[in-house]
Amino acid sequence: MSEGNLKPLSAFPPFSAILFDMDGLVLDSEKTYVTAWQRAARELGKHLEAAVAEGLFGRHADDVAKLLGEALGPDFDRKAFFEIAERHWFEVLAHEGIQSMSGVEALLTDLQKAGIPFALATNSDAHYAERCLTAANLTNAFKTFVSRDQVQSGKPAPDLFLEAAERLGILPSHCLVLEDSETGLIAARAAGTQPILIQQRAVLRDKLSHLADQSFPDLVAFLSALHLRST
Q1: pTM for this prediction
Q2: Nearest CA-CA partner of 28 in 95, 120, 93
Q3: Phi, psi at residue 15, to the nearest 5°?
Q4: pLDDT band for position 231 (50/70/90)?
């Protein structure tokens, strides 16, 4: 495992690579999940508050199912709900697509120009992640890509970030990890990486900032702090 080409950039400790979360970090995909979950609930004669749906982001699938059950009642049918939600989600992707988060393209371009390796590490299974990236016109954006179904345990376990660092050939301690959720930050810390919080919601950013080495409201601000164009 290599230390890589350490970048002693002023705003950060030296690092050699950057690992990206996907949902809510690279892609504004969370809106598509909320829409699909709410439509599935409505089809089953239930009502799902947007705030409840948004509280599911970054959680393990079993936790998501448990919280949905609590919100939708004792007759919650997990299998039926997720089958219906998946159908609605595919419809949302087909008709509306997914927007990338502000600053993603500029950040990836500058990382490539600076010769800094990067990878995607997502709690989504590969076929879902690939659909999302395609819908956002980022199909070939990440040459190194690790999904939930490629490791033993998803976040908050460290497996995804450890595997991503391994594939890049970089020590985890020399990787910045960009995350927007508590689950992801815990996983990044457990992997021995340098967790960076990217969270546009000020209340949530304040709540989670203690889990990160640094925090930023968006990738634009993070890129500005990197100073890549001046190195």
Answers
A1: 0.85
A2: 93
A3: -145, 165
A4: very low
